[in-house]
Design a protein that fits this description.
Elements (H helix, E strand, L loop, with lengths): L3 E4 L5 H12 L3 E6 L2 H13 L4 E5 L5 H9 L10 E4 L15 H29 L2 E6 L12 H20 L5 E8 L6 H5 L4 H6 L9 H12 L9 E4 L15
Parallel strand pairs: 1-2, 1-4, 2-3, 4-5, 5-6, 6-7
Helix pairs in contact: 1-8, 3-4, 4-5
């Protein structure tokens, strides 16, 4: 039987790229996201290529909706092999003392609490079966704060710490935990951060060849397909001309 992967935030960016990459590798897909139309579109595309897909339309910030969605998964799909906690976002780039309360709440509720909710709902089944893999999409931003990153950096530092804690809690089992920490990836990330300001978003990637969602999906798949005795605990992935979260060499 093909393995089952559940991907949160699967309707764009790294999540959508992971869906494509894992489908090509023969996995069955459970795709979640807030955009019902995009989920339906992805289901049609993957199904037409022979991949088994189910979709769950909910926001990871809404714990009750998440619980209901997971409870609705058909019995033959419940033994989830891989959970990719990808849903996340950055909002704003203001100094902390000028930050937007709503932006803070959205980042914390999505990047931290949403990840915790999905982990709590899925991992007990993995522990019971003594197999499974949690892949959390963190960020180079979790390594150290950068100007304007304050709360977003804090949420991604939390992803690393939560992942490390989960790995400790699961050490007596065969369930693996991997944190993938991308650097500069060209997706709709910056457009979301700047609330739809396309020009400002485009400037983020000027003068450098950034990573793509597909690059990160390759890394996630590599970690997922490592031998049973190998646990890829953490991977930091940067563009070639990026040294860390704040040092980027841009060609003129």
């Amino acid at each position: 039987m093909n393995k089952i992967v559940l991907i949160t935030g699967a309707t764009s960016g790294i999540g959508e790229a992971c869906a494509s990459k894992f489908a090509q590798a023969g996995y069955k897909l459970i795709l979640t996201g807030r955009n019902a139309d995009k989920l339906a579109q992805l289901q049609h595309v993957f199904t037409s290529k022979g991949t088994s897909v189910i979709t769950l339309n909910f926001d990871v910030r809404d714990r009750d909706s998440a619980k209901a969605a997971i409870a609705s998964i058909p019995d033959e799909w419940k033994n989830i092999d891989i959970l990719i906690n990808n849903a996340g976002l950055a909002l704003g780039l203001e100094p902390e003392y000028q930050g937007d309360f709503s932006d803070w709440d959205t980042m914390i509720d999505t990047n931290i609490k949403g990840l915790l909710t999905m982990t709590r709902l899925i991992v007990p089944g993995m522990v019971e079966r003594d197999k499974g893999h949690v892949i959390n999409i963190g960020s180079v931003a979790g390594e150290a704060a950068y100007a304007g990153g304050n709360v977003y950096c804090a949420t991604k530092a939390a992803v690393k710490t939560i992942s490390d804690g989960l790995r400790i809690d699961l050490a007596h089992t065969a369930v693996k935990v991997t944190t993938v920490k991308p650097g500069l990836v060209e997706t709709n990330f910056s457009n979301t951060r700047f609330h739809g300001d396309n020009e400002r978003a485009d400037n983020v990637y000027k003068g450098i060849t950034p990573l793509t969602g597909e690059d990160i999906a390759d890394v996630a798949l590599y970690a997922a397909q490592a031998p049973a005795h190998v646990q890829i605990a953490e991977i930091l992935v940067l563009a070639t001309h990026q040294a860390n979260g704040s040092i980027i060499y841009r060609q003129k």
